[in-house]
Amino acid sequence: MNKPKMATEKGVPSTSRVLMLLGQLERMNGEAMVRDVEMARQVTAKILHLIQTQEKSGKEVMSKGSSGMEVILASLENTRDVQTTLNILYILSELLTVGRGRRVGVFVSKGGTGILFQILITASKELPPSEELMLQLHSLLAKVGPKDRKFGVKARLSGALNVTVNLMKQNIQNIKLLLPCLQVLRVYSTNSVNAISLGKNGVVELMFKIVAPYSKKNTSLLKVALDALGALLKSKTNARRAVDGGHVPILLAVYLDWHRNDTRHRHMLIRKGLLVCLRNITNIKLGRKAFVEADGMRVLYNSSTECLPVRTLDPLINTSSLIMRKCFPKNRLPLPTIKSAFHYQLPHVPAVGPVAQLYSQPPGVDDVVDESDDNEETDADTENDTENEEDEKDQRSANDDIETDLNKLHPKKNPGRPFEELRVYERFFLELSEDFQGYNFECSKSASTTSSSSSFSLSSASSQSTRPIIVPTAQALSPKHVSVPSSQEDCNPTKGKHTLPSPSATTPTPPAPLTPLELDTIHLTKDQDKKEEGHIPSPDTRTTLSSLTRPPSQGQMIQQELAHVLECVSLEEEGVLKAEEAGGRGVKQEEGSPVNATRHIQSPLLLGGIATRRVGGGGSNWGSDCGSEGTEDEGGEGAVLEVPDTALLLPMHDPDLYVEMVKGTNSVPQYAEVAYPDYFGHVAPTFREPLVERVYGVQRSKIFQDIERLIHPNDILDKVVYDLDIPSCPVIEDSGESLKFNSQFESGNLRKAVQVRKYEYDLVLNSDINSNHYHQWFYFEVSGMRVGSTYRFNIINCEKSNSQFNYGMQVLMYSVQEAISGRPRWVRTGTDICYYKNHFARSSIAAGGQKGKSYYTMTFSTNFSHKDDVCYFAYHYPYTYSTLKMHLSKLEALRTPQIYLRQDVLCETLGGNGCPLLTITAMPESNSNDHICQFRNRPLIFLSARVHPGETNASWVMKGTLEFLMGTSPLAASLREAYIFKIVPMLNPDGVINGNHRCSLSGEDLNRQWQNPNPELHPTIYHTKSLLQYLAHIQRAPLVFCDYHGHSRKKNVFMYGCSVKETVWQSNISATSSDLQEDLGYRALPKILSQIAPAFSMASCSFVVERSKESTARVVVWREIGVQRSYTMESTLCGCDQGKYKVSVYLILFIGYGQKRPVQCKFSRITCS
């Protein structure tokens, strides 16, 4: 080392005693120090005395500008005298003890760590080595090590590892020397290479000799030893050594001993250290097996249960919980296959991708329990996880996903298809060529009311009244061969329907079509006649929706219960249904066999306090089944249960019309029922619902209840009560001790229900059709409940690593009892809600090749207010395809002579359902050239929604958009006069109908198909993109494109857009100023929304283009169509954390329904005709 020159800090007297001594020591460095040993001892002793007795002396040595540390280290390196070395080590120890953070950093930066290792190696060669010197060296290394990032590497390269290990082996009983050695070993072991090396040198076995049962002596030593052992056991090699050595039962026994004896909880850190060792051992499969065989689950469960009352012991409980969850035996889901319970044969299977992999798998290999040693401790496993942590993970992954190719970042209009192919789409843009010469503006009102063909309805009755224009795909027919009916030339502002046939219909070998239900003979009517007597249906009458019940007599109003009510609106086919076919509803039947659509329940409905009036005549329908014989009451009078006239509550909802729309909806399972909430409708609450505050420890308590299943298996019923994999009888009847479940209706999703305890049920969701995953959306019916009992429901096959259910979100519940009482609404419900990783293993096949993944449980508890009620639970407010059709039909009533509204059918889906396309703008003031020119040249705004079926809030926002645009407000009128709105309100009807969460019937995410959509597999995306390509060809690309979505893990409403500049800024790629030239207009719309909409968050918006999103609508429309203002608008599924809706569930339904005052509820009778 070069000889340092002693310098003094400005302002420090040069006559300072300690600085004079340091100067003297500096002059002695080199040969003088070796020759004059006694003088070196005296000088270093004096410096030590000054630093020990005078605080300012230490400050002078370590002050900025002082070279005191260099002098001390040079002296330490040059001396050969043990006493002088000890004096200098004492000096360093004193200096680094005070203000150790900065001072240790200075020490490390001056090379102090290397000098200490050098002295350690030298001292170890003396026999015997100086105990005091070794003690001081290791004490100092223990202080320095945590601050030196290269400490482990330096120790290994210098040979210090073996010196420390040998010293420990020779002094295993010397507590004074062993403690600093363990402290240094703890730092050594943080380096993974060192940990493996130490394990080979027998350190793991050595540490287990130090670990001891409960004792009040040497607790500090044991704490440090456990820390070091825990660090060593992070290495899988060392963990295997511990298992092979039989140390897992030893650790459990020691932990149990400390737990029993440490009654005052003074040694929690030792107990935590033992648990950390067990946690690291159980990171490997062999360790988990040894833990279970040693009865570790019972030991930790019992000890943790005893710790629960003491809040300060939460670290022990959390660590124990983590260990038990890891060691809980991995199970398959209780399903025969993780593929969907429903099968739809595709017209052709893609050559590559998840769907191709699904079809290529042999039977029985789709669900493989992965036995890898990978563990997901980084996932949302603990009570203290926050949304911010989840956002940080998303941000880190997003940074790796940012597009860095400038060629892809610059939008380039690329229509992709020849204009001759796209010309067929001209028929969907009649407003661009309409001249209105035959339109009588003076009598526009009468003309507008006579156009009945515009109502969008796919029911068989309505479809016969209008002859659609057939617009084939380019592959099927050249545009020049398309004939246009003369009705097209009519200038009525409301146009007829135009339909693109399903592309698969033109293929040589089309798949077998879905057979629609012949339900036209079933009608639901509202009987408004007031009569004194009720009608008694004959036993063979097929009841579809009735709540036909026997009323209590005047003297028995409270005591009697009405014996029977239907759980669902039931839709039947023509013909007599046999009793043995009663379990076959909602399932595909063999050709020629009718679909049995009748569903009955046994549970009575108590109507105490519900005002009803008698209608009809005769009596009541009694018996255990609808339509069975019964007897009249003593008075000979009967009555039917009346339901509210929802038209008064919901002007845009008509139950009868909804049923008609259901008849024209094709589903894969051939659903024959209508859920009550969809039939009755939903009135939005006029109040804000607060987010639920999470109860501390709720997740832990739920996990412990799950662990009890393994420890006390005899307490578990494990009784299947509902199973879609049994098509003949999915509802498993019992003696009435279990709840009854159902999901066989449009948008329903529940595959299996297993009763695990008297009031607890495990629920399994169905995969998307032609997929083996995407479990999030649920919508199911429950009946047969008891009032006053708390039921727990566990949805056990969720896939996302975190959920808003951990941050205040609740499930939605709809009570039929409440609905018929005049309160038809979904309400937030559920207590003890949490979302956590469970012990059901996800197959790597379904996890995209990732191993070691688990499913997640979403659990909630609830109480039911009404005996034998029929309730529905949903992930979010349901919005079915039939609801959309009904709404579009009702939307016509809002049209005034000043509104131009046209409803077309863009195409047919794979399932044979129409995809509606709407055009909304203002009628021209007259047919003058100026007014017609202004009408045709209005900019276009293109809106779409519901490409992901589980994001139902997107449909509610779209509903609100449509009603606003059709409204009478001056703002709506000005928007219509300024723009032409082209709207595809539901891009994925098949997914919505069949209860999918993300995919269509093709098993693919349609929002990842925009780059190259297949006309057969992705018809809605193919034709929607073609509309945009046509507009680009005729130089009329939309001013704004916005795709409505819902977000499950973030709050508020926000937008994603596309910007070259912001993407480049985030990716740190080099770009010239010309590369970053772009109009900032893409920020205008989000900025406006942030100023006028309380729920909109500008801070949550992003305009970065990611590689993984290059096939989404937003990016493709921006890049290929050249729409600068191309957005995805995300609406939260939970609530807001800003503005006026902060800490409350933001009701997206307000957008759809408006904040209406409650309406007086009236009842009407619903009967079968």
TrEMBL record:
Active site (catalytic residues): 1130
Keywords from the named record: Carboxypeptidase, Cytoplasm, Hydrolase, Metal-binding, Metalloprotease, Mitochondrion, Nucleus, Protease, Zinc
Keyword Transcription attached: no
Domain of life: Eukaryota
UniProt xrefs under InterPro entries: ARM-like, ARM-type_fold, CBPC1/4, Cytosolic_carboxypeptidase, Pepdidase_M14_N, Peptidase_M14
CDD domains documented for this protein: M14_Nna1
Cofactor requirement: Zn(2+)
Extent of Basic and acidic residues compositional bias: 526-535
GO biological process assignments: proteolysis
Subcellular location: Cytoplasm, Cytosol; Mitochondrion; Nucleus
Enzyme Commission designation: 3.4.17.24
Residue spans of biased composition, Acidic residues class: 367-392
Residues in Peptidase M14 domain copies: 877-1157
Primary location recorded for the protein, binned into one broad class: cytoplasm
GO MF term set: metallocarboxypeptidase activity; zinc ion binding
Annotated Polar residues bias: 540-554
Reaction equations catalysed: C-terminal L-alpha-aminoacyl-L-glutamyl-L-glutamyl-[tubulin] + H2O = C-terminal L-alpha-aminoacyl-L-glutamyl-[tubulin] + L-glutamate; (L-glutamyl)(n+1)-gamma-L-glutamyl-L-glutamyl-[protein] + H2O = (L-glutamyl)(n)-gamma-L-glutamyl-L-glutamyl-[protein] + L-glutamate
Gene Ontology CC: one annotated term: cytosol
Alphabetical list of Pfam families matching this protein: Pepdidase_M14_N (PF18027), Peptidase_M14 (PF00246), TPR_CCP1_N (PF25571)
Region described as Disordered: spans on this chain: 355-417, 447-466, 477-514, 526-554
Entry keyword annotation includes Mitochondrion: yes
UniProt record similarity statement: Belongs to the peptidase M14 family.
Protein name (Swiss-Prot/TrEMBL): Cytosolic carboxypeptidase 1
Native species: Dicentrarchus labrax
